[in-house]
Amino acid sequence: MLSLKQRILKRLLDIFLSLIGIMLCIIPIFVLFIISTIVHKEFGFFVQKRVGKKGKLFLIFKIKSLKSGKTILPFGKFIRKNKLDELPQLLNVFLGSMSIVGPRPDIKGYADVLDGANKIILNVKPGLTSLATLKFANEEELLAKQTDAKQFNDFVLWPEKVKLNTAYVNNYSFKNDIVIIIKTILTVLHLK
Question: Which of 12, 42, 79, 153 could be bridged to 84 by S-S, CB 3.0 to 4.6 A?
Answer without folding.
Answer: 79
